[in-house]
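Researcher: Sequence of Alpha/beta-hydrolase follows. Predict its structure.
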Amino acid sequence: MTDPLNTLDSASSPLSVSRKTYPIAGILTTVFGLEELPPQATEVACLWLLHPRLATQERMSGIAGAVIRDWNQRLKDRAADTKAPVTGLVAVAFDQRNHGSRLVDPLGNEAWRQGNPRHAQDMFSIFQGTARDVSLLMDYLPSFLFPTSERRVSDHLVLGVSLGGHAAWSCIMHEPRVSAGVVIIGCPDYVSLMADRARLSKLASWTESNPQGSQFLGSEAFPSTLLDVVCNYDPAALLLSYLGSTPDLSRNESLREPNEEEKQILRPLLDRCLANKKILNLSGGLDKLVPYHRGEAFLTWLKQTIGPNGWFADGAVTLEDIIDENAAHEVTPKMIAEAVRFIRESLDAGKGDSKSPGSVREAKI
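Model: Prediction complete. Tokens:
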């Protein structure tokens, strides 16, 4: 797999910011932007940066610099408004499980085509474990950064790329302290993504069943016990399971609106997982590794659900779904510009319950 951050590297020189590494709960955790915090900022927002598969935390340093420098410039521009409270921003990166300083099994990071028969189990457990690490580090980070409580970590945002994008979806869904998230070339529908990858990899569990693919779920390549776990955490598998249907490998057709009984079951779940959250989903129109269309049916259903005319409009969920039409499985300058803008606007809006209805923005760039 080509490093999806290479395109960004070749487009511009990364903006540097200060960094300091702490060993927290046995995880080497790098914090960007501490030295640049405004002295008057008693509250600090934290942006968690989750790197791609086969990469390390170091690859997220350029994004950290871009976001922090933009926000600090925003604070300078509005410095004349002395009544406005000042919230500083730091970014935090660490190696995902089985990556970098935490590597224990190189094959576990590879796909079926590269000879890893447990690709589905390995990838889901790694990025789901990383999402849990974010929650763990959230608990302890303030005591390392501000041991005399001179500042307070008041908000958490997440940005993930590829494998980190899958993890970011899990953070958004299952970590209540995350108020906003940016998913770059990630997918909210793991079953659909893996089914497509199994088809393209010509796995025996796919090609030797009739019709093809009918025995994939429950096979050694995707055990039924893995599917049980996926249905507990994956956005599409979790929410769509309440529509009374088994996971659909194709997801080629539009998903129906829940009936009233199903809405009564789904509403508390959506309240817990998504209410008042802001999401930016960035995809590559030419991405073959994580194709947009593998998550499209679920995203369309979600947008119809949370949008101004949706049955969960009062959940005040913001979802921006943006496709860089000429991008493959890569992070482009256009994507980072959107991410920087989104994070700035999210910080400007602040955290808390919104009285505005849900909103949806779709765009191609």
